Amino acid sequence: MAERLEKKEVKEIPRKADDLSEWYTQVCLRAELVDYAPVRGCIVLRPYGFAIWSNIQRAFDARFAATGHSNAYFPLLIPESLLAREAEHVEGFAPEVAWVTEGGGEKLTERLAIRPTSEVTVGTMYARWIQSHRDLPVLINQWVNVLRWEKATRPFLRTLEFLWQEGHTAHATREEAADEVQRILEIYREVAEDVLALSVIKGRKSANEKFAGAESTFAIEALMPDGKALQAGTSHELAQHFSKAYDITFTDVDEKVKHVWTTSWGVSWRILGGLIMTHGDDRGLVLPPEIAPHQVVVVPIPKKGDEAVLPAARALALELQTVARTKLDDRPEQSAPWKFNEWELRGVPLRVEIGPRDVAAGQVTLARRDTLEKLTVPRAEAGARVAELLEEIQGNLRRRAREFREERTVEVSDKDALLAALSKQQGFVLAPWCGRPECELDIKAATAAVTRVFLDEPISGACAYCGQPARSKAYFARSY
Fold it and tell me: Which pLDDT belongs to residue 87?
């Protein structure tokens, strides 16, 4: 029988401030986002969790399409001989690769890697498809699953198999590729902040932290309630590393044969984990309206023998569907308080309550999930007020996330202050840094923190840790 690793649900969700890890796990399970699969380190994405992920996917996909990208699909399996061509890439992923060695009862003559990422397959195909400058640029994205053999796992944040998008583009010049990387990084920031109501910093990754095989990696980083950073999206300048390894060439306008310049970029469902931790509270999920499967839930509260509330609630739900994704919860077997608790657990941004007194008075009661505030509005104004409140809730969540990040970011300039700040693990620590890999490794050994990103803005002065000339300012933190 396959091994099943699971955590039993507790009767109540623990307080977020007391045990963030257990709170997070229980919210994921009790809100029915996921369940544990029969394979260690894997999860089942349940319908409600998948609906949230689908809304996130649509937000990204619309922006990718608007910037000229098309979706495609590349295979799950990668021949070992192909993977081995780009040495730095294969070395970086070797500890996480899972291999298929047998199929149909027969040993394979060549091992097949289950994709940890798709640069290899994409590069092989681009070498076939690209012949001339007229074929460029190639702008392709795919929504797929990947597999990385992780040791410690947690829903969304780190699992063996996970869902993500990965973009792969090819360009005629270094400048075009560099522009693409920054364009995608800005899309990532925009969706993270405007849609998911997160607050992120963006910048360049250090040599130690960049993607294996990349010339440069850029990322957005979010700050979690425990002071740890969460890498929420990465965009890579691959230069000509992969195009030379897989012989992706084109004939340019000057009739010379040249190697293309490539990029890759990706966001996984880890960003959903960041959303859960950032906005959730002791009652469960708190979802930004932009990605909530149900933006509004209408809960009728009929009294015994009442025949007016249910028709009024149904009419109201039908009307609200024109301004928001609305669900009518008219289940007779559950009480109104039970429904209130369930929809709060599931993070629905706005609850609309309607009982006999509301019907008689021509009003409805609106309950905000973000502030738990209740207000009564005239029934005739319900649609307009719901639309206004959803916008207010989205803005409030974004503002709270930004204020938290700003409050938990400190700037230091010397070694003692840097070590003291990192030992507290309260958030981002911004400091002048020399950019040397050995300096970063020393900081990591002393504090378990690394640079999350550094800013491409040259500065004068000395590195806060080693005293050598500073290259730029860097954000330091421990991370997931």
Answer: 66
Helix (H, G, I), strand (E, B) or coil at 364: strand
- Decide: helix, strand or coil at residue 387: helix
Question: pTM of the prediction?
Answer: 0.94
Tell me the per-residue pLDDT of 90-105, one tens digit each, with 9 for 90 and over.
Answer: 677 788 899 999 999 9
With CA atoms as reference, report the closest residue to 5 among 32, 33, 40, 29.
Answer: 40
Residue type at position 457: E
Residue-wise pLDDT for 361-378, tens only, equals: 999 999 999 999 999 999
Side-chain half-sphere exposure of 266, counting CA atoms within 13 A: 20
Q: What is the pLDDT of residue 12?
A: 79
Q: What is the pLDDT of residues 444-478, one digit of tens each?
A: 999 999 999 999 888 999 999 999 999 999 999 99
- Helix ranges restricted to H, 291-381: 309-320, 336-345, 356-361
Amino acid occupying residue 439? C
Superfamily of domain 296-389: Anticodon-binding domain (3.40.50.800)
Residue 234 near residue 211 (C-beta atoms within 8 A): yes
The residue ranges of every structural domain in the chain are 50-279, 296-389, 409-477
Q: Which secondary-structure segment (H or E) carries 74? A: none
Q: CATH says 409-477 is which class?
A: alpha beta
Dihedral of CA atoms 283, 287, 293, 297 in degrees, nearest 10, equals 60
DSSP helix/strand/coil, 56 = helix
**Of the candidate ranges 256-265, 303-312, 426-435, 438-447, the one whose mean pLDDT is the lowest:** 303-312
**Alpha-carbon Rg of the chain, whole angstroms?**
25
Report the C-alpha gap between 134 and 398 in whole angstroms. Answer: 43
pLDDT over 90 for what percent of the chain?
91
For the chain, the straight-line distance linking the first and the last C-alpha, in angstroms and rounded, comes to 31
Fold agreement (50-279, 296-389):
no
Contact assessment for residue 120 and residue 83, using Cβ atoms and an 8 Å cutoff: yes
User: To which H or E segment does residue 426 belong?
Assistant: none
Quickly count: other Cβ atoms within 10 Å of residue 367's Cβ.
21
Is a pLDDT exceeding 90 seen at residue 89?
A: no
d(CA 398, CA 402): 6
Q: Count other C-beta atoms under 10 Å from residue 418's C-beta.
A: 25
pLDDT of 199 strictly over 60: yes
Protein fold of 50-279: BirA Bifunctional Protein; domain 2 (3.30.930)
- The DSSP H or E segment spanning 275 is helix 270-279
DSSP state of 154: B
